[in-house]
């Protein structure tokens, strides 16, 4: 019986699974400010390789041990970055110091890793010198915070050295570099003395450019698009702009530029560009759904190099309101199709010439309209964030609405200015976006003249180091001036309601009351949206939002107009192509106020 009991207990012990790696703890001591200490602890844990191993559910003891040994230097590096140059770091594996464990006699399994950091005193800068400075340098200090008496963050020394080199490069010294550096931590005085010596090198000019790689675009066209500043005094911004012009075409998957190791005897510096073309054709698909307005499906097809000169042909098509809820009065299916042919590097390196054609078949609750427009225009790129365009063309439309069966003939002059300073267009956490569009139209064959203009302004502000909480706001403005309400093409007028304006309200449910229970679009529009976005985890986020819309009969908001609003909540799921968006919204104020009715919206990317 005793042997049976022993054998049973032995088998039970052997059956217990090995302890799994399930814990990484990081603590910091020696910092009085609790908020600062917690922030440093969070940063230390985020860079710890053992934390990354835990997230990846690593179980190999050798991998975890290697990560723990590497974490010593990673912890020290973070503390240097915060100005602590005498930290004490302990990394323990199941209670044993990782540095004392023989790598040839590792434990079979590891349960937890404990990292303890004693910060020690925080250092300040003593001597801060970078030189010689470029003649045109005017920043003093060279970088913010790199001054005697300031907290001696290690990254500021690196930033100051880079800034000094960049000043010389902007002045035309392409080969400027760091010649020498002396960095001394004075522990008794708790000071860090930093001295960086720069080597400016000679003043240089852009030399010749050679182009190679797998491509069908000729060298002549590449040079027309690029605008390489051969013969001009070197400037890194000029080189960057020239390379960005080639990338902007979308024709090439690889655009790399390499400068020669040594300048030419005449003071010029040669460059070599390597280009590899993308596959010439590409297509994409679009799908959105909401319970009131039904499905929206669409797609596009692109040819990146149509005639061998990096010309870009794009064809888009879309169908909306498919299978819409009959109770929503969403009208019939709307169809749009457009074609745009762009030739980069026309009339100047930063200009693209284009031809456009658009067909629209709109079947909305209050009107139907078929419209066709075409024309030519030019896009001007002012910088990486700002571009404008102007075009001229003709537009014909046939509409049936509360004002009758009508035809319109117009010469149009659409102009646009877009300024995008968002960090991520699909899921912004900071910055702003501004898109303005004005289309003057000249009436032909008794059609009235006027102008329709819109403004789309968005702003974003993220909180905390990780920007997991974001407040987002949007303002939409629209106006029609010149033509009378009953002499304006319906597609130029404004409605409110639906996914693009006020979520929860019926699609284009708010317009201008013209009597007999009929409505048309308005000549003025104001839309406001606010969202509070919070990422609970790295992949799951929640959103609360409110939308407001106003439509009026005049060119500017007056008491004659009416408004509506909606409230809702949503969920976001991070994907490689952007957040998957699921929103639930209900009407709040306006002609419709039905809290029992909830609209569901599904799409990819944030709502704005």
Automatic annotation (TrEMBL):
Signal found in the keyword field: yes
Key words of the record: Membrane, Signal, Transmembrane, Transmembrane beta strand
Highest taxon in the source lineage: Bacteria
InterPro entries in alphabetical order: Bac_surfAg_D15, BamA/TamA_POTRA, D15-like, POTRA
Secretion signal, residue range per the UniProt entry: 1-20
Localization annotation: Membrane
Main localization category: membrane
POTRA domain ranges (all copies): 204-278
Protein name according to UniProt: Autotransporter assembly complex family protein
Source organism of the structure: Meridianimarinicoccus marinus
């Amino acid at each position: 019986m005793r042997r049976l009991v022993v054998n049973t207990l032995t088998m039970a012990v052997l059956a217990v699974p090995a302890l799994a790696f399930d814990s990484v703890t990081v603590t910091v001591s020696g910092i009085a400010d609790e908020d600062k200490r917690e922030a440093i602890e969070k940063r230390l844990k985020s860079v710890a390789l053992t934390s990354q191993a835990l997230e990846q559910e690593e179980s190999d003891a050798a991998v975890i041990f290697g990560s723990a040994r590497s974490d010593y230097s990673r912890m020290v590096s973070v503390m240097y970055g915060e100005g602590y140059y005498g930290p004490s770091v302990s990394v323990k594996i199941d209670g044993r110091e990782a540095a004392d464990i023989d790598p040839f006699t590792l434990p079979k399994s590891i349960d937890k890793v404990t990292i303890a950091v004693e910060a020690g005193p925080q250092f300040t800068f003593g001597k801060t010198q970078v030189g010689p400075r470029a003649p045109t340098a005017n920043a003093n200090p060279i970088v913010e915070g790199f001054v005697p008496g300031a907290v001696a963050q290690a990254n500021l020394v690196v930033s100051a050295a880079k800034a000094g080199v960049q000043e010389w490069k902007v002045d035309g010294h392409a080969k400027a570099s760091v010649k020498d550096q002396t960095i001394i931590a004075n522990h008794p005085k708790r000071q860090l003395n930093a001295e960086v010596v720069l080597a400016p090198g000679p003043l240089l000019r852009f030399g010749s450019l050679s182009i190679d790689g797998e491509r069908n675009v000729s060298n002549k066209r590449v040079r027309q698009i690029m605008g390489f500043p051969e013969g001009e005094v070197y400037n890194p911004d000029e080189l960057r702009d020239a390379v960005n012009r080639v990338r902007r075409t979308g024709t090439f998957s690889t655009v790399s530029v390499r400068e020669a190791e040594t300048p030419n005897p005449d003071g010029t510096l040669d460059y070599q560009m390597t280009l590899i073309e993308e596959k010439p054709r590409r297509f994409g698909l679009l799908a959105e759904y909401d319970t009131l307005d039904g499905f929206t499906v669409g797609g596009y097809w692109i040819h990146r190099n149509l005639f061998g000169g990096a010309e870009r042909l794009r064809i888009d098509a879309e169908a909306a309101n498919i299978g819409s809820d009959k109770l929503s009065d969403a009208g019939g299916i709307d169809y749009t199709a457009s074609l745009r042919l762009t030739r980069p590097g026309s009339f100047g390196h930063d200009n693209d010439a284009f031809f456009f054609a658009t067909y629209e078949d709109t079947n909305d609750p209050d009107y139907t309209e078929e419209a066709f427009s075409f024309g030519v225009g030019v896009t001007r790129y002012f910088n990486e964030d700002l571009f404008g365009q102007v075009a001229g063309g003709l537009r014909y439309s046939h509409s049936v609405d509360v004002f009758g069966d009508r035809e319109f003939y117009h010469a149009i002059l659409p102009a646009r200015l877009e300024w995008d300073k968002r960090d991520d267009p699909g899921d912004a956490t900071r910055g702003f976006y501004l898109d303005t569009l004005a289309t003057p139209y000249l009436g032909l064959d008794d059609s009235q003249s006027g102008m329709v203009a819109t403004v789309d302004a968005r702003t974003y502000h993220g909180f905390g180091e990780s920007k997991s909480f974001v407040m987002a706001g949007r303002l939409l403005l629209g106006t029609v001036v010149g033509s009378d309400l009953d002499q304006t093409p319906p597609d130029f007028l404004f409605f409110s309601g639906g996914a693009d304006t006020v979520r929860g309200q019926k699609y284009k449910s708010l317009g201008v009351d013209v009597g007999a229970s009929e409505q048309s679009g308005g000549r003025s529009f104001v839309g406001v949206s606010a969202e509070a976005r919070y990422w609970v985890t790295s992949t799951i986020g929640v959103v609360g939002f409110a939308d407001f819309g106003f439509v009026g009969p005049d060119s500017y908001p007056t008491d004659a107009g009416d408004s509506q609003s909606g409230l809702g909540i949503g969920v976001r799921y991070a994907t490689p192509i952007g957040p998957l968006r699921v929103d639930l919204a209900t009407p709040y104020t306006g002609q419709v106020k039905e809290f029992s009715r909830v609209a569901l919206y599904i799409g990819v990317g944030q709502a704005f």
